[in-house]
Amino acid sequence: MVMPPLDDMHFRRENFVRDLANWGYPKLADQAARELPESFDGVQAAAWCRKVGLSFTEIKSRMGGSP
Fold first, then answer.
1. pTM
2. Collapsing DSSP states into helix, strand and coil, what is residue 41?
3. pLDDT score at 65
4. Interatomic CA distance for residues 52 and 55, integer angstroms
């Protein structure tokens, strides 16, 4: 599956936080809950991942997209 461009990707904070926790990133999940807006796009998600040292490519892969 090919993922859409970053600005066409949309996330809900509650889902992103839940996924991070389920993938073994509980501290990052807590941080995401505090820092991310209720809804955000892939550009914002990628920027946040860079900020916290998390690979957005890994996140996309875990979501079922190609790196």
1. 0.84
2. strand
3. 57
4. 9
